[in-house]
Amino acid sequence: MAKLDARRVAAFLADPGGCRVVVLHGDDPGLIRERCEALVRTVTEGDALRLVEAGREMLRAPNALANEAASSPLTGGRVLVRLRDAADGKPVVEAARAALAGPGPGLVVIEAPELRTSAALFKAVEASPSGAVIACYRERGAELAGSIGRILQELGVAPEPAATEWLAQRLGEDRMLLRRELEKLALFVGPGGRVTPEAAVACVAEGSALDLEEALMAAMTGDVATADKALDTAFGEGANPVQVVRAALRHVQRLHLASLAVAAGAAPAGALETLRPPVFFRHKPMMERALRLWRPAALEAAGQALLEAERRTKTTGLPAPTIARGAVTTLARQAAARR
What we know:
With 339 residues, the protein is α/β, with parallel strands linked by helices. It has helices at residues 9-14, 29-44, 64-70, 90-101, 120-126, 141-154, 161-171, 175-189, 197-204, 207-220, 224-236, 241-263, 268-273, 284-293, 296-315, 320-338, and strands spanning 2-3, 21-25, 51-54, 80-83, 107-111, 131-135, 158-159, 194-195.
């Protein structure tokens, strides 16, 4: 069975067939846990007597995991043996090999977050027709948005595409934190409810991040007073200076990409449609206005100025909040002069 392609993972979690050992590895412990728990539900069918939590002391006997997998629970059915936080080494490799060669019919799941593809455990399971190796890396972009939509559907709510796109940009890549926020959002809209962008913003967004977005939108359209007021609020709610400068740089870089399309003949609205991740619908009018004010060369220069501002927050004796505020208000004054 070997290493599973990402497109086959969902089907495998729903039906692992005759597989005897699964290794879950990668840089997202939350996704490892989620996929292991999916296998637990599939194999044990909710019967707690069919789940064996294997401690590391069980590795002292090479056949211990295999013996547990071959056991027959009182309630019948197949056993799942779960070994958490495993690392490469002779004991776990020998235990995995014994389980692969054992009589089954149980399934041994080994969670090994830091396991490398060159590790002996990885190679032993990958090489066996009775083993499966599943990579659990942090998802990004369209892949993350797809997972968010699927999780929300599992939680009994209907997400709108614009909401999943916004959530993918906002929630980050840590699966445990992401699922926690999505569970909170599902409770917010209620069973069978629709997850609209407005609902997502109301439930998930942090105040400082929203105020920072407002400051950047206002700055790039020349609204100096609004930008300065929003910055005050963002700093008051916990935004740090480097975060402010980096957010401004990302915003300018996205505008620069869209401005190149405008310079090539595209309409501002059409240019924004080419950006990935997509522009949140509430931001489109102000970004269109900004594109009418800024040319590619000016945005390139603004990006260089922001890089210099970030350097100054780390290497000079000036107060970092002052540098960050000055960088954003300079953009606002430049935009105001272009009106």
